[in-house]
Design brief:
The complex is a heterodimer. By secondary structure, chain A is α/β, with parallel strands linked by helices. In chain A, about 20% of the residues lie in helices and about 20% in strands. Chain B has one domain. The chains are: A alpha/beta, B mainly alpha.
Chain lengths: ~575, ~160
C-alpha cells in the first residue's frame, strides 16, 4: 500500500481535544492533517430551529455521525432505591425492566467536524483544584499528575479563543485573567432557581458559558433561543468547528478530511507509531505519522488502541500497563422538573445559564467523597416547545390535554445535577467479542456499574433538587430521570488515564504515551478523575493545547519507557 | 426527516416490549371504515376548539397513515386498535356519542399495559401529539407564534 504525503502531525478526531491540538500545532508552524470519522455539518442546512416542526428534530444524525457501540448487561435495580426511578406524569415509569437500561444509544455523542461540541450545551468549566487530588486528599479515585496551576494559563488562553462569558466570582477556581465576555442575563427559570436557593442556603450564580454574550471575533451574540444542544445555527456557541477548526483552517496549515475514519494504527518494534490506515470513500489509505495525536473520545480512542494490536503489542498499543479501556467514568446525572404556577417564559434564554457550585468540592456532600453541581436545566432537557409538555408533563387527552398544554406552557422549572463518578473495576471499555462494524472492526463494548457511593450521590442530588423545586413554588413534580435506571452518558472519561507511573497509566503528564514517544492522546480519556460535575470541554481544550505546546517545543522529557 | 423521527419513536416503543405485534400479518391497506374509526379516535385525543383545529383538521391522520405504510408493526397496531374500537359491545366507535367515545378512550388510557388497547392509545397519542404540535396552526393560545430561530428570544424577559 502506498504511503501518502507526509504531514508534521496527524490528529485523529476533530472534537474538543483534536480541534484544539490541531489549531495549536498549526499556530506553532506545523502542517497538520486532521482526520474526522464523521461528516461536516452545515449549520444553516442541517440545524432546523427555523422550521415550524423544529421541536421534532434533535441534533441531526446523518450517516456516519454516530459511532456504533455495544453495551454489556447493566446493574440489577434494587427496589430499595426506587425513589431514584425515572418517570414522568404522562408515561409513568420510564424503565419497566428490572435492570438499568440504556436511554437511546446510551452514549450520546457526535461524530463530525467539531465532534460532540456540536451538540453540547456549551458549559465552559475549569476543574475544581481539589477534584484533581482525590487520592492524596481523600483516599479514593486517582490524583492527576498535574495541578490546577499547570492548566490555568491554558484555561485562560482557550477561554479567550472560544469567547467564554462568565461572572468574576469563581471561588476555588482562581483566575489570572477575567473572562473575555460578561456573564449572560439569567433566564426566567434561572432567576426562579436563584431566588429559591437563597432560603435554602444555596448560592446560585451565572454559569460560565461557551456562548457569546456580545459579538466576538467575527461571530454574533447569542439570541437566546434556548436550544443550544439541537445545534446552533448562528454560530455564537463555541463549538470546535467555529472556533479552533475555523482558526486552524485560516492558518493555511491545516488539512481537514471529514468522513475519514481511522481503522488501524501501526507501530514499529521500537515503539514508534509510523503509519495509520484510514478510510476515504471505499479506499483504505495509509499515511505517515511523525506525530500522532489521538482524540477520538473516551470510547473510540481505547477502541482504536486495543484494535491496533499486533506482533509487538499483543494487548494493543500504549497498553503495556493494561490500563487502556479501564477506569471508564460515565455521567452521573439527575434531573427533576416541576410546574410552577406564575412562572412564565421558562422556554426562553440560554441553556444552563445558572449554576450552583456549593457541593462541588470533593468533600462538600455530607458523608460522601466526590462532589456535584446543580444547574438550571429547563431548556436543556427540552421544555422549550409544546410537544415536550404534551408528551411529558400533561397527561390525558382531549380538552384536558390541550387546555393543560396552554395553561402550563412556560411554567416548567427543571433543575439538573451532575456528580463525580469514581472509577471501579466493573466499569470499563473493551472490544466486543462478537459485534463488528462494516469494516469488520470490533465495536467498543461499554460496561458500567454504579457503586453504593454513586447511588448515594444520586440520592443527595435528587433530594436537593426536590427541595429546591418545592421552595421555588412547584406544586407538583412532573418528571424525574437519572442515572440510577438509565445509562445515558454524555461526559465520559478515564480510559487512557494520565499519570507518572507507566505501570498504572497510559499517558504521561503531557498526554504522551509512556510507550510510544510520538503518540499523544488529547481527549477526556486521559482524565484521572471526572470532577464533581464540571463539564469537560474546556479542560480537554486546555490539556490538548498544553500537549501541542509540548510537541511543538520539543521540551517533553523522555517517556518512562518500559519493555514491550 | 419527520418520518425518520416518527419511525424512531415507533421503533423505540416496540423495543423490548412484551406485546408481540406480528408485522407479517399486516398486509391490508386501511379501508374506509378503519380510516373513519381512526379519524374519530384522533379527534377524541386532540379535539378542535375555538383556538385551534382538531387532529384531522390539521391532517394528523394522513401523516400517521403515511407512516404506517413504511412501518409494518405500526400498521398492524393501528389495524388491531381500530378493530378493538369497533368491538366494544355496542355500535361502531364512530357512531358513539362524544361522551361515550371519551369514556372508551379514557378506559383505554388506564388499561393493561400489555394489551392492545393501551398500547394503541399510548403510541397513537405519542405520534399524534408530535405531528399535531408541529403545525403552527396548533399554537394558538400558546405564548409562541414562531420557531425559535432566526429571531431567538431577546431579553428583557418578564
Amino acid at each position: 500500500m502506498a504511503v501518502n504525503k507526509r504531514f508534521d502531525a496527524v490528529v485523529v478526531g476533530s472534537g474538543a481535544g483534536g480541534a484544539a491540538a490541531a489549531w495549536r500545532l498549526c499556530e506553532k508552524g506545523l502542517h497538520v492533517l486532521l482526520l474526522e470519522a464523521g461528516p461536516r455539518f452545515d449549520p444553516t442546512r442541517d440545524y432546523t430551529l427555523s422550521q415550524p416542526d423544529w421541536e421534532r428534530h434533535r441534533f441531526p444524525e446523518p450517516p456516519g455521525s454516530q459511532g456504533k457501540i455495544s453495551i454489556a448487561p447493566l446493574d440489577r435495580l434494587d427496589p430499595a432505591d426506587a425513589d431514584l426511578r425515572s418517570w414522568n406524569r404522562v408515561v409513568g415509569t420510564l424503565v419497566r425492566e428490572e435492570t438499568r437500561q440504556a436511554m437511546g444509544p446510551g452514549y450520546h455523542h457526535v461524530q463530525g467536524v467539531g465532534g460532540s461540541t456540536l451538540h453540547f450545551v456549551g458549559e465552559s468549566h475549569r476543574m475544581h483544584p481539589d477534584a484533581m487530588k482525590l487520592r492524596s486528599q481523600h483516599g479514593v479515585g486517582c490524583d492527576w499528575p498535574i495541578d490546577y496551576a499547570d492548566l490555568e494559563p491554558y484555561y485562560a488562553l482557550c477561554e479567550n479563543l472560544v469567547g467564554v462569558a462568565g461572572p468574576p466570582d469563581q471561588g476555588a477556581r482562581w483566575r489570572s485573567t477575567s473572562f473575555p465576555l460578561p456573564a449572560h442575563p439569567l433566564s426566567p427559570p434561572a432567576q426562579r432557581l436563584v431566588a429559591a436557593g437563597r432560603p435554602l442556603g444555596m448560592h446560585w450564580q451565572p454559569n460560565s458559558r461557551a456562548a457569546l454574550s456580545a459579538a466576538y471575533d467575527g461571530r454574533p451574540a447569542c439570541n437566546y433561543c434556548g436550544n443550544c444542544n439541537r445545534g446552533c445555527p448562528i454560530g455564537d456557541k463555541g463549538s470546535a468547528d467555529v472556533t479552533f477548526i475555523r482558526k486552524g483552517l485560516g492558518s493555511g496549515r491545516l488539512t481537514l478530511k471529514p468522513a475519514s475514519p481511522v481503522v488501524r494504527i501501526r507501530a514499529t518494534a521500537s515503539g514508534r507509531i509510523d503509519t495509520l490506515d484510514y478510510l476515504e470513500g471505499k479506499t483504505i489509505r495509509r499515511i505517515e505519522t511523525p506525530i500522532l495525536v489521538l482524540a477520538a473520545g473516551a470510547v473510540q480512542s481505547p477502541r482504536l488502541l486495543l484494535n491496533s494490536h499486533g506482533r509487538h503489542y499483543r494487548k494493543g498499543l500504549a497498553n503495556g500497563s493494561g490500563q487502556v479501556g479501564r477506569n471508564f467514568m460515565e455521567t452521573l446525572s439527575w434531573n427533576s422538573t416541576g410546574l410552577v404556577p406564575g412562572l412564565a417564559q421558562s422556554h426562553v434564554g440560554l441553556q444552563s445559564d445558572a449554576i450552583c457550585w456549593d457541593f462541588n468540592a470533593p468533600d462538600a456532600i455530607p458523608g460522601l467523597i466526590g462532589g456535584c453541581r446543580f444547574n438550571s436545566s429547563t431548556q436543556e432537557i427540552g421544555f422549550t416547545g409544546p410537544i415536550a409538555y404534551a408528551l411529558r408533563a400533561i397527561s390525558g387527552f382531549g380538552k384536558q390535554l390541550k387546555d393543560g398544554v396552554r395553561a402550563s406552557f412556560g411554567s416548567a422549572l427543571s433543575v439538573g445535577a451532575i456528580a463525580e463518578f469514581l472509577p471501579n473495576e466493573e466499569t470499563f471499555v473493551e472490544l466486543d467479542p462478537q459485534k463488528k462494524d462494516r469494516l469488520g472492526i470490533p465495536l467498543p463494548r461499554l460496561h458500567s456499574h454504579l457503586s453504593r457511593q454513586e447511588i448515594e450521590r444520586l440520592k443527595f442530588m435528587a433530594s436537593q433538587s426536590r427541595r429546591l423545586l418545592k421552595e421555588a413554588g412547584a406544586t407538583e413534580l412532573v418528571e424525574e430521570f437519572g442515572a440510577w435506571d438509565h445509562f445515558s452518558a454524555t461526559h465520559v472519561f478515564g480510559t487512557c488515564r494520565m499519570g507518572n507511573d507507566s505501570l498504572a497509566s497510559v499517558v504521561d503528564p503531557h498526554c504522551r504515551s509512556h510507550e510510544h514517544s510520538n503518540l499523544y492522546i488529547t481527549d477526556a480519556s486521559v482524565f484521572p478523575s471526572s470532577g464533581g460535575g464540571e463539564s469537560p470541554s474546556l479542560t480537554i481544550h486546555a490539556l490538548a493545547v498544553r500537549a501541542a505546546d509540548a510537541i511543538a517545543s520539543g521540551t517533553v522529557l523522555p517517556p518512562s519507557r518500559r519493555g514491550v | 426527516m419527520q418520518r425518520r423521527r416518527l419511525l424512531k419513536i415507533v421503533g423505540a416503543f416496540f423495543l423490548g416490549q412484551a406485546l408481540d405485534i406480528a408485522p407479517a400479518l399486516a398486509a391490508t391497506r386501511p379501508g374506509a371504515r378503519e380510516r373513519a374509526t381512526f379519524a374519530a379516535f384522533l379527534d377524541v385525543l386532540l379535539p378542535g376548539d375555538t383556538l385551534s383545529g382538531s387532529a384531522t383538521e390539521l391532517r394528523v391522520d394522513e401523516q400517521l397513515w403515511a407512516l404506517s405504510d413504511t412501518e409494518a408493526r405500526f400498521r398492524r397496531l393501528l389495524e388491531l386498535g381500530c378493530q378493538w374500537l369497533n368491538m366494544t359491545g355496542g355500535p361502531p366507535f364512530t357512531e358513539l356519542s362524544a361522551l361515550q367515545q371519551n369514556a372508551v378512550v379514557g378506559w383505554m388510557s388506564t388499561s393493561d399495559w400489555d394489551q392492545i388497547p393501551r398500547r394503541f392509545y399510548e403510541l397513537v397519542r405519542q405520534t399524534a401529539v408530535e405531528v399535531y404540535y408541529s403545525d403552527p396552526a396548533a399554537w394558538h393560545g400558546l405564548p409562541i407564534d414562531r420557531p425559535p430561530q432566526p429571531l431567538g428570544y431577546l431579553p428583557p424577559w418578564q
